[in-house]
């Protein structure tokens, strides 16, 4: 794509802002935008493979749940917006970040008028096609467990991510890739993922509630387990139980299912990727191939 003066714009620099596709360095919002001032905004992250959204409808449904929860109303065709942005960025394998804020007021105030026009922003970045690379290419990770300091409405995918940022930095400083969160003695989820563990061939995951985000990949994993006749239970999980599990996984839209090989420096089982993880990842590969290629 070329700009007005014939200067070629790098593909990943094309963003969507309020109905327009433009170069990222030309995208501007008001300093009084409530997303900027208060984190009064929600977001969604959607993986596209070969230019096609993976579980796109489910992501849009979660986006609309978040919008309803904070009472932002729009009449936008989200699929058209996302498809146009991905096409403008050359298609291929991309992660699309979509954010909707309540909009900009004339001054900073905690209160807002109901007639504000939402600010809609979206951008892309390249991602690996983890499904094409296969299970052997997936590396297990180390994790830590730390206090869940987030607000109680984690089912709303809001942009106020400072607690997540702090615990992920804590994990990084400990040489780990994820922070698993605990509240009142019960594990909730990862700072950027959902949590699973395996005991004696049974998959366990924390109960669905307003204190965890209903992950699109999490729901797909539950569905695939049910289709294969693998018991999968939503229960309260305590820290000690996690450490003695046969397998521990995390899941997210851009990482699928990732095996956790150690927690707080302690190996999970023998410290290798587990058999059931391998089976579930292979099922994901089959499903993704069928959805992306027909």
Fill in the keyword field for this structure.
alpha+beta; D-amino Acid Aminotransferase, Chain A, domain 1; 294 residues; 2 domains; 28% strand; nine-stranded mixed sheet; six-stranded antiparallel sheet; D-amino Acid Aminotransferase, Chain A, domain 2; 15 strands; disordered N terminus
Verbal overview:
The protein has eight helices and 15 strands. It is an alpha+beta fold. It has two domains: 11-127, D-amino Acid Aminotransferase, Chain A, domain 1 (2-Layer Sandwich); 135-293, D-amino Acid Aminotransferase, subunit A, domain 2 (D-amino Acid Aminotransferase, Chain A, domain 2). Strands 7, 8, 9, 10, 11, 12, 13, 14 and 15 form a nine-stranded mixed beta sheet that branches. A hairpin with a 2-residue loop joins strand 10 (194-199) and strand 11. The radius of gyration is 20 Å and the shape is globular. The two termini are 30 Å apart. Mean pLDDT is 93; it is low at 1-10.
Give the arrangement of secondary structure elements.
Blueprint lengths: L13 E4 L2 E4 L10 H5 L2 E9 L2 E2 L2 H14 L8 H11 L5 E8 L17 E8 L3 H4 L7 E7 L14 H12 L4 E6 L2 E5 L3 E6 L2 E4 L10 H12 L4 E3 L4 H5 L3 E6 L3 E8 L2 E2 L7 H19 L1
